[in-house]
Design goal:
Elements lengths: L6 H18 L16 E5 L10 E8 L15 E6 L4 E3 L2 E3 L7 E7 L5 E8 L7 E6 L7 E5 L10 E8 L26 E5 L4 E4 L1
Antiparallel strand pairs: 1-2, 2-6, 3-5, 3-7, 4-6, 7-8, 9-10, 10-12, 11-12
């Protein structure tokens, strides 16, 4: 059998090889979007200082177990019960997922009494809180003094008067909030006056 050299056939073979080679160098690319997982916990942000009579906003952020912010948390349809100990008012009492914008929502706490308030958030129907935080409400600024004394005393006997610094909501004000103030004590009548302890504001009269 004769070997017949065909330039045309050679050109076709080379073209096929080139096509295969070109096809093998074609690259494919695409974007893969990794979304947050299911809800796992709330991150809670509180102001550094909370004063009586001044409302504060507690910021909640919904995260999955890998600490990814769930920006579409409003779409989950979840519902939570919010409660607070003590006399403070906590709003809202029911927090719906629809209240979250970009994964964040706010809870308002208002209290006139200086006390520690425990904020608890439960998932609807749950008995174990998803998160708890202690919020300390401090006295507000000095508003007035309260004088504590016996209703009556026999002449010639000494007796004590206690002067208590208070805010507008009758919470005792800390000494550090009044130590730089100049306070004048005035007394009507002929009784003598002696400061026994400036730290606890006791006066001795006689």
């Amino acid at each position: 059998m004769k070997n017949i050299f065909s330039p045309k056939r050679l050109l076709l073979s080379m073209a096929s090889v080139l096509l295969v080679f070109a096809a093998s160098n074609v690259s494919h690319s695409g974007n893969i979007i990794v979304k947050p997982g299911g809800f796992d916990h709330f991150a809670v942000q509180l102001p550094e200082k909370i004063r009586a009579g001044e409302g504060i906003i507690v910021k909640l952020q919904a995260y999955d177990m890998h600490d990814n912010l769930i920006t579409n948390f409003a779409e989950t349809g979840k519902e939570f019960k919010v409660s607070g100990s003590g006399s403070a008012q906590v709003r809202p009492s029911i927090l719906k997922a629809a209240s979250f914008t970009g994964g964040s929502a706010g809870i308002t706490i208002t209290g006139n009494k200086a006390e520690a308030v425990v904020l608890s958030i439960f998932e609807a129907g749950g008995t174990v809180p998803v998160v708890t935080r202690e919020v300390k409400i401090l006295p507000n600024k000095l508003d007035h003094f309260f004088i504590q004394s016996p209703p009556s005393v026999a002449a010639g006997n000494k007796f004590d008067i206690k002067v208590i610094a208070r805010d507008a909501y009758n919470n005792p004000v800390a000494d550090t909030d009044i130590e730089t103030k100049n306070i004048k004590l005035a007394l009507a009548g002929t009784a003598g006056l002696k400061i026994v302890s400036a730290d606890i504001w006791y006066l001795e009269m006689g």
